[in-house]
Specification:
This protein is 58% helix and 3% strand. It is mainly alpha-helical.
């Protein structure tokens, strides 16, 4: 996997300015809410063996209209790890990208495991229909294989902050300790399960309940408008 990531990361960095979106959630004057799908270039960079699919999606996802010129992410060298973790969590939930990216970078550089566990926890809190666990898994492989990369870190944290949080499932979840065994080839559920099993979380029983509910209702889960070929190419 390391060779695959090293081979593709330069292409993602080259297109980083056009891979972000100004907003993943919009609402008009009539109250109509629209959410844009996640950019799959980063997960495919990591988990897709097929170069042709990766390069096609990278080209399709690059949108010059939404070009955002991103500068180097500044360090916060004097902030201790516990404060970095606390502020990173709060800022991402609030959707404040400007500071989230700085706290996230510094936490990743000072304590990789704390950064990954916090990112994983953030991905589990959100609506199980979203693909934040998949993005978090990709980020883990990138950091463990090639280290922190500003452009990649920015795109990941941008998605986490701009795809505003829907915490209703978490708030309404009733703690459950049941084991999850069979899950169909639903990539959002498979990624959620893998993230859930990666660490121990304070809200683990609620996350388990969310996953069980997702498995029970998976036929009604939103798969967005993602090409099956893309979803099927992702292998953990």
């Amino acid at each position: 996997m390391k060779n695959r990531i090293e081979k593709r990361v330069a292409k993602v960095i080259e297109n980083a300015d056009t891979l972000d979106k100004r907003a993943y959630l919009t609402i008009d004057c009539d109250g109509v809410v629209k959410r844009k799908e996640m950019n799959f270039s980063i997960p495919l960079m990591v988990f897709c063996e097929n170069d042709e699919i990766f390069e096609r999606v990278l080209k399709e996802e690059s949108n010059k209209i939404e070009r955002i010129k991103e500068k180097k992410i500044e360090r916060l060298s004097n902030v201790p790890v516990d404060k970095l973790k606390e502020n990173f969590m709060k800022l991402v939930i609030k959707g404040e990208l400007e500071f989230s990216k700085k706290y996230g970078k510094e936490l990743a550089l000072k304590d990789k495991e704390e950064f990954l566990k916090t990112l994983f926890n953030l991905s589990l809190m959100d609506n199980i229909n979203f693909y934040k666990p998949l993005m978090a898994l990709a980020m883990k492989e990138i950091i463990e294989n090639i280290g922190w990369v500003d452009e990649i870190g920015y795109l990941v944290i941008s998605y986490f902050t701009k795809q505003r949080y829907d915490l209703s499932q978490l708030e309404n979840a009733i703690e459950n300790e049941s084991e999850i065994t069979e899950i169909s080839e639903n990539i959002s559920l498979l990624a959620y399960k893998k993230v859930l099993e990666s660490y121990t979380y304070k809200n683990e029983k609620k996350y388990r309940a969310m996953l069980l509910s997702g498995v029970k209702n998976q036929n009604r889960l939103t798969q967005w408008q993602i090409d099956d070929e893309i979803l099927n190419s992702i292998k953990f």
